[in-house]
Amino acid sequence: MGQELSIWQLVSQASVFVQLIMLILLLASVVSWYQIAQRMMYFGQAQKEMVRFESRFWSGTDLNTLYAEGSDKRGVMGMESVFRAGFKEFTRLAKKKLDSDAMMEACQRSMRVALSREEEAMESGLPFLATVGSTSPYVGLLGTVWGIMGSFHGLGQVQQATLATVAPGISEALVATAMGLIAAIPAVVSYNRFSAKVDSFAGKYETFSEEFSSILHRQIHSRD
């Protein structure tokens, strides 16, 4: 309790500029933790949806039935979104007398667009985490440098300089560096982890897109 109180005392006794730096870092940390929690829930849901959809898709369920099931749901995401984009284009063009290659190209293009949208959804919030992770230590260092400059400036105005005179000001300034690291470390770790998840999910979605393209290719050419 005493240690916590001393930290608050250091913060309250810091200069206005250093306090502003600390406030910015505190806000950045709060928002980054919100983004971390949001991404964790998103990827958890994406994993569940992918497992569920893969089980239904490869169980031999009729594609029209599978597409109709998705129409009754809200917030279709991930692999199912890629499937719906390709199959919707397939059913739309199947009613027209188009060249098989043209139909195949249109279906693949629709799935690529859906895949791109899913990647954008997965990457939401990651640029902010990257920014916090890369800039927070420097922002904290700025507050520290400013605080130490103030301490030495005040030191020059006293006749007898002692460690006890300069130590409080330096301690206040170093709190800014500590806050910068506290904000940066979780952001960097989470960014790296979520980036790996984005690559993993995107790879699985792309593999499914290619497999589904093969299925559509057989159905399209069976019409000829």
From TrEMBL:
Residues 80-206 form the MotA/TolQ/ExbB proton channel domain. Keywords: Cell cycle, Cell division, Cell inner membrane, Cell membrane, Membrane, Transmembrane, Transmembrane helix. GO terms for cellular component: plasma membrane. It is a multi-pass membrane protein. Pfam families: MotA_ExbB. GO terms for biological process: bacteriocin transport; cell division; protein import. It comes from the Bacteria. The chain crosses the membrane at residues 16-34, 126-149, 169-191. InterPro entries: ExbB/TolQ_transport, MotA_ExbB_proton_chnl, Tol-Pal_TolQ. Its main location: membrane. It is found in: Cell inner membrane; Cell membrane. PANTHER family: PROTEIN TOLQ, TOL-PAL SYSTEM PROTEIN TOLQ. The Tol-Pal system is composed of five core proteins: the inner membrane proteins TolA, TolQ and TolR, the periplasmic protein TolB and the outer membrane protein Pal. They form a network linking the inner and outer membranes and the peptidoglycan layer. Part of the Tol-Pal system, which plays a role in outer membrane invagination during cell division and is important for maintaining outer membrane integrity. Belongs to the ExbB/TolQ family. NCBIfam families: tolQ. This is Tol-Pal system protein TolQ. It comes from Zhongshania aliphaticivorans. The lineage of its organism: Bacteria, Pseudomonadati, Pseudomonadota, Gammaproteobacteria, Cellvibrionales.
